[in-house]
Design goal:
The chain is an alpha/beta fold. The protein is built from twelve helices and nine strands.
Length: about 300
């Protein structure tokens, strides 16, 4: 039978019962003309996530043990199953903002054949800690970016490398034919998306950041989770960039930490006042920001060894 599926949406989940019904419902209500399939890969949920997923007819559910999960490997499993020309990856805890989320991503493929990957803008959830909400807002602005290596070389390319290779499989679309040539690596703890982005950009292709495609996504990590996340990131980016950060870099950041904390808590105070937070809430958010940032910095330092 002829395969007429154009789009394969691959959703990765674990313990996402609080929003997975809304996520899948909005995915299935997208305003597009192409036929799509939805594949959900669950990595050992212990809540009602699997039960909720099974209520959606036509959605393919794949269940894996928690110890089988790996960011690149699990996404490659979904991509191998996919029948569409376009692979759309979405985290189970990311909620598309509206019915134009998918079309806004895919339209970029029609405009330029060199475009092989597009990623969405993230906006924070309502309960997001202030310091993280401010970081997400400043890092994912409502300004479209088209990124390739064609106009930079040498030191200029290295200087802008981190911004150029920024890419997020939390919500993105890539061409399956390109994925076949360059699947996600499976030997990095995190940042498989940035490593993939660097490879395709080096091959002469283009990546697009599409701010009109929006997902609601954020995390309120504990200090331990922040340490682990930045520890893994440090290891991953040292591999991706082919070098470690200097000890002087971390020494400078440790010395500068009190000043950065003061500036950030000032921003939190301003945000809290503008959004009706109580004095107690603002103070709590300041403490959370300082302790989380310090845990993240320690994670980076230990991961850099």
């Amino acid at each position: 039978m002829r395969n007429n599926i154009e789009i394969s949406i691959i959703i990765l989940t674990k313990n996402a019962e609080s929003n997975i019904h809304k996520t899948i419902s909005i995915v299935l209500s997208q305003e597009i003309n192409q036929k799509l399939e939805v594949i959900v890969i669950d990595s050992g949920s212990t809540d009602r996530t699997v039960e909720i997923i099974k209520k959606f007819p036509g959605v393919t559910l794949v269940q894996k043990r928690p110890d089988e999960f790996q960011h690149g490997k699990t996404r490659n499993i979904g991509a191998k199953m996919a029948r569409g020309r376009y692979l759309v990856f979405l985290n189970g805890d990311a909620i598309p903002k509206d019915k134009k989320w998918l079309g806004s991503l895919l339209n970029n493929f029609e405009r330029d054949e060199k475009v092989v990957g597009i990623y969405s803008r993230h906006i924070p959830k309502e309960n997001c800690h202030i310091y993280m909400a401010l970081e997400i807002s400043s890092g994912m602005r409502p300004i479209k970016e088209t990124k390739n290596f064609s106009y930079l070389s040498g030191n200029d390319l290295q200087r802008h490398m981190l911004n150029l290779i920024r890419f997020s499989t939390v919500s993105c679309a890539i061409k399956k034919e390109i994925w076949k040539q360059m699947p996600f690596v499976e030997d990095l703890p995190v940042a498989e998306d940035q490593q993939w982005s660097k490879r395709v950009l080096a091959a002469g292709y283009t990546i697009v950041y599409e701010p009109s495609s929006v997902v609601i996504h954020s995390h309120n990590y504990t200090r331990r989770q922040m340490f682990k996340y930045y520890y893994d990131n440090s290891i991953a980016f040292n591999t991706i960039l082919g070098k470690k950060k200097s000890s002087f870099n971390f020494l400078w950041r440790l010395l500068f930490f009190p000043i950065r904390s003061f500036l950030e808590t000032s921003s939190i105070l301003k945000y809290g006042r503008e959004n009706g937070y109580s004095v107690h809430q603002i103070f709590s958010e300041m403490i959370i920001a300082i302790s989380s940032r310090f845990s993240a910095l320690l994670g980076e330092i230990y991961g850099n060894k």
